[in-house]
Specification:
The protein has one domain. By secondary structure, it is mostly beta strands. The mean pLDDT is about 95. The strands form 3 sheets. It has a 3-stranded antiparallel beta sheet with strand order 3-4-7, with no helix packed on it.
């Protein structure tokens, strides 16, 4: 996971990503080179919940060149 923090607060999933100018300037180029990867979970992240057996999320935050 890169530049992503998350927590469960009651029935809310709260995701925080740094979108500051510095974070965007320090972002790594994507595999294609067309964008910069500012933040990413890297893969699906399992979220604990009592409502369903499996709940996951995946996020990529990208900036165009």
């Amino acid at each position: 996971m890169h530049n992503v923090e998350w927590k469960v607060d009651g029935d809310k999933l709260i995701v925080t990503m740094d979108i500051s100018k510095q974070s965007i300037e320090e972002a790594s180029p994507s595999a294609s080179g067309k964008t910069y990867l500012v933040a990413s979970t890297g893969s699906a992240v399992q979220v604990p919940t009592k409502h369903v057996k499996s709940l996951t999320f995946a996020i990529n935050l990208m900036a165009k060149k």
